[in-house]
Every structure is written in C-alpha cells, then in structure tokens.
Design brief:
There is one protein chain. The chain is mainly beta. Strands 20, 21, 22, 23, 24, 25, 26, 27, 28, 29 and 30 form an eleven-stranded antiparallel β-sheet that branches. Strands 1, 2, 3, 4, 5, 6, 7, 8 and 9 form a nine-stranded antiparallel β-sheet that branches. A hairpin with a 5-residue loop joins strand 23 and strand 24.
Length: 574
C-alpha cells in the first residue's frame, strides 16, 4: 500500500468517526420554565406546574415511533392533564420527518386557564415487550436507541412555575357511593351493595384488559352468582397509551337485589408499576360506582356497626370439621361469606356448605368457579352469596384438610386470615332475631368400623379435667401415617397439660407436645394445640396425656381455648 492510499484511508476513517459523532451528539434542549430531558431510564416522567392566570403555553416535544415501519405506533411521547378536572388538555400526535426517521418532534401552543397541571412524558414503549424487541445487533432503527434525544419543554409568557405536586384531582360527585383509584399491583378491592328497587348504576372503570390473566372489573349478582357487568374489549374504549389500557363509563340496569363489585389487578402494569405506556390519566386506574336512587346502600358485613354474624365458623384450624345448626322462624335474606382453600383444578380442601336439616339439600357451597382470589397463595379463595331462607332448620359446616389453615399457614396466608371459615349475616338488621343458633360443635373424627380404615379413631381422650393421667394403646399392622390433635396448657415456664406417644417395644418417645411444635389455640396464651401428622412403623404404641391440679376442661379460670371440648388428645389413622 503506497503512502497516498494510506493517507486516504486514514482520512476516510476520521471522517466516518466525525459523522457518527455528529449523528449521536445530543442537540441542545430548548429553554422553558419546565424541562424534561435525558429521558433514558424506561419510566413515566411526571412534572407539575401552575399558571397564575390564563396563559398561552408553548410546547416542544421530541419523541419516537417504535420502529421505522409505516404502521408503527408512537413509543415515546408527551401530554398534559388538568390536575383539577382529571382530563387531558393536550396530547402529542406524531409527524414523521421522513419515511425512515422514527424520531418525531412536535411544536404546538395551547391556551390554558389559571390552575395546576401535570405534564407527562412516557419512555416505556407502546406494549409490554417493546423495550426488549430490538432488532438483531441493533442494526434496524428502534425507539430505545434514541432515548438521549427525547425531551419535553414548556414555555409561557405568563406567570408559570414548576410545583412539587403531581397529583390529579378526580372529581367526586355527590352520588358516588364507592371508588378505588390509583390501584397498585396484585390488589383486590371489593364492595357489596344492595338495591331495593330497579335502578341504574353508573360504573367507571379503567384497567388492563386482555383475554386472560389481566385485571378484572366486574359486578356480580350474589343471588344468582352471575356477572351482570364486566369490563371487556367490546364495551370499553381505549384509555390511551398501550392498547390494553381500556376504559368504561356508562349505566348498568339493576333489578332489586344484592351485588358485589370487584376490581382486581394482576402482577404487572398498574398505577404502582407501569410496564408499558400508561393511560392518559394514570390516577383513574381503578373503578367507581354512582347511584341516583336513595335505596342503593353499601353492605359491610365485617363492620362492627353491622352487629356481627348471626352464625359463624371462623379461624378454623387444620384437620377438623365444624358445624352449627340454627333455626329460622320467618323468611329472611342472608349474606354468606367463606374463605378457604380450593385447588386450581377445583379440588376442595378447606370449604363451607349450607344444607337444609333433615332433607340434606345443599343450598350453598364453595367452588373454584364461584369464588375469587382471597389474597396470598392462589389456592386461597373467597366466596360470597345471598340466599332467601324460609322458616326451618339449617346446618352450616366448614371442613379443613390436614394443612394450611388458620394458625397453620403452609403457604402464603390470605389477605384476612381471621376470616378463614364461613359466616352468615342477616341483611335486614330488624330480622336479626329470626335466626337462632342451636348448637356449636367440633365434629369428632369418623369412628372405626371395619378394621383400620382411613379416618379411623385409634385413641380419643378429650374433655380431660384436672389431675388426670390418660394412658391408651393402639397397634399398627403396617407402617402408617397417623394424625394427632392435642390441646393443652404449655407456656415458656413449663408444660402442665400435655401429651406424648411412646413405642411399647423400645420405650422411646416418638412424639410429644412442646411449645415449639404447637400453636396458640385461642383464649389465654397458655392454650396450645398441635394439629399434624407423623409416620409410624408397625407395632404397639402407648398414648399419654396428663393434666396438673388446675386449669383444664371444666375449670378454665381465664379465657378458654376456642375448642374447649378438644382439651386432651385424639389420634386417627390417615
């Protein structure tokens, strides 16, 4: 290579570097009272400003389309919302400088009244995966390559100033009866309402809609279990930003009855964490209800003002079946609420049902289809329903398996762990005396019938009083799993009423109650309960339970345990 050629190549290389540097160098950002620049960290930018009087506001924004395709949506852009009305007053619409250029710049001006406003610039992308959908080695234009060129500048000849507040005031009409807004991820907001006449309910909802696995906004008739309204693609309109952002605002006709409104968000894309471009008014992410009729009222069964449940089986522990019988002496409308464990395949682990005594007809029961997430693990399910009960006798029952229940959470606990169980509320407080509870029992395990069947009782010693020493034996013909439920008095100072199991052949203790392997049984702190299983080899075993001279069944001088009749020990074959 001769010297002249070498010099030419060096000059070409220098020229190429200069061209690349010139193309990548950031242009100066225009001046103004509000500036957003260096918008390169994949987020939504918000900046509040105030106008002391009516003013012309000049707007200069540079954003980008997602790529160079002619049909590509805007990926980065700005807009302005009136903080008083919660409505957009200016939204950027892109204009391509050329067919291949994905950058777009808009210069505009608008007349605004005195007040507070919020300027937004989104650098999140037009859909959930946009940030990651870059071309191979970045060889084709993609919006995120131009992040350092984005800006949003506002200027005005009037008195304008940047303020710290970016909140948006959503108007609250006098007839608004319930609202949840700016809802974050994995939230579940619900309310029960009752109307005594045919009426219309105005619903406003903004959420992420997709065919499955996104947010849910709906209104359900608790008497029929059917949805009377739900946010769908067909009945909603674009809310701005990502196409999945949808909004509904309209009237829904209701017959007299009891309804449950639900707004539930998934793990992604919400007012707490946007993963794609948000709606024009992020503060409206949620749901609100308005009613003109005076007889539309909210029902909060868990409020102290409601007087508590008429019948309840709550804080139910593992491995029990509880039931209560009650009578109704005149027609009465009741609300049932249950929280339990139902598998994703519909298997009922901890569940409730209501039957008509004598007839055995199941009037209400839990199912995966009719329940909703109860918070925590996906198998925690909550279900509400309304029934018109005629005069008669009824049995409310709640059954749990051997794990994951109140005070024994093996998986993520529900949002309201103290509601694990079922409760019945009388909707008309004047009819509270129509319901009379007859009994309150913890159903004993199934007694043995034909040999060592699953669920057979091997030892049952309950209602153990003071100063007793229980000793019982059982024999296993094969290696088996047994379930032990033992309730007694244990504290950090010592064990007073407690049980243990030993092998007759070796004299070895194979299980015993301790402070560490028991949980609080309700009432006094000393009340402890073990409710679990253990594996035993073939052989004969001796079951012990001892009590000291005070504080046992029939002699609880302070707060008794939740199930006083279970004081003692029961061993069943699993």
């Amino acid at each position: 290579m001769n010297p002249l050629t070498r010099i030419q190549l060096i000059l070409l290389a220098v020229l190429a570097v200069l061209v690349v540097w010139r193309m990548s160098a950031s242009e100066p950002v225009p001046s103004g009272f509000l500036q957003l620049s260096d918008l390169d960290d994949h987020r939504l930018y918000e900046r509040g400003f105030e106008l002391d009087g009516p003013a012309t506001v000049r707007i200069d924004v540079r954003g980008a389309y997602e790529n160079d395709a002619l049909e590509a949506p805007l990926a980065a852009y700005g807009w302005i919302v009136d903080a008083r009305s919660g409505e957009p007053v200016w939204i950027m619409s892109g204009v391509r400088a050329s067919e291949r250029d994905i950058l777009t710049r808009v210069q505009d001006q608008i007349e605004l009244d005195a007040g507070r406003y919020v300027a937004y610039f989104t650098a999140l992308g037009p859909h959930r995966g946009s940030w990651d959908e870059d071309s191979f080695l970045g060889l084709s234009p993609h919006w995120k390559h131009y992040r350092d060129k984005f800006f949003m500048v506002l200027d005005s000849d009037g008195q304008a100033s940047v303020v710290s507040s970016t909140s948006v005031d959503i108007s609250t009409p006098d007839n608004e009866i319930w609202a949840v807004r700016t809802v974050g991820n994995r939230a579940r907001e619900t309310v029960i309402l009752r109307t005594e006449s045919a009426t219309s309910l105005h619903i406003q909802a903004t959420a992420e809609w997709c065919s499955s696995g996104c947010d849910v906004a709906r209104l359900r008739d608790l008497e029929t279990g059917r949805d009377v309204w739900e946010l769908t693609m067909d009945n909603s309109e674009p809310a701005g930003g990502w196409l999945a952002n949808r909004t509904f605002s309209g009237q829904v006709a209701l017959d007299p009855g009891v309804y449950q409104a639900l707004f539930e968000t998934d793990r992604l894309h919400d007012a707490g964490r946007w993963v794609a471009n948000p709606p024009w008014v992020p503060a409206k992410w949620g749901m609100s209800l308005r009613a003109d009729a005076d007889d539309v009222t909210l029902v909060d069964p868990w409020s102290d003002a409601e007087g508590g449940p008429a019948v309840s089986l709550l804080e139910v522990s593992s491995g029990v079946r509880e039931q209560k019988s009650f009578t109704v002496d005149r027609p009465v409308m009741v609300l049932l609420h249950a929280l339990g464990e139902i598998g994703t395949d519909g298997t009922l682990y901890d569940h409730a049902k209501l039957v008509a005594a004598g007839q055995g007809d199941v009037l209400w029961s839990m199912s995966r289809e009719r329940s909703v997430p109860g918070g925590g693990h996906e198998t925690n399910r909550a279900q509400s329903g309304v029934l018109q009960l005629s005069p008669g006798t009824y049995v409310l029952s709640y059954e749990t398996d051997d794990s994951h229940a109140w005070n024994d959470w093996r998986k993520s606990r529900p949002r309201h762990p103290d509601r694990w169980g079922v409760a019945i509320y009388v909707l008309d407080r004047g009819d509270a005396d129509a319901v009379t509870v007859l009994d309150e029992v913890v159903a004993p395990p199934v007694p043995a019938r034909d040999g060592q069947l699953s669920g057979a009782v091997l030892v049952q010693a309950e209602r153990v009083s003071n100063d007793e020493q229980i000793l019982r034996e059982f024999t296993l013909d094969a290696a088996s799993t047994v379930h032990v439920r033992a309730s007694g008095e244990i504290s950090r100072q010592g064990r007073y009423d407690y049980g243990w199991i030993e092998s007759v052949a070796s004299g070895e203790t194979v299980w015993e109650m301790t402070l560490e392997n028991t949980v609080h049984a309700g009432g006094d702190d000393r009340n402890r309960i073990f409710d679990g299983s253990l594996e035993l080899s073939p052989g004969t075993y001796r079951v012990h339970f001892v009590t000291d001279f005070d504080y046992a069944w029939g002699d609880f001088d302070t707060d008794p345990p939740k199930y006083p009749d279970a004081w003692g020990i029961t061993v069943t074959l699993k």
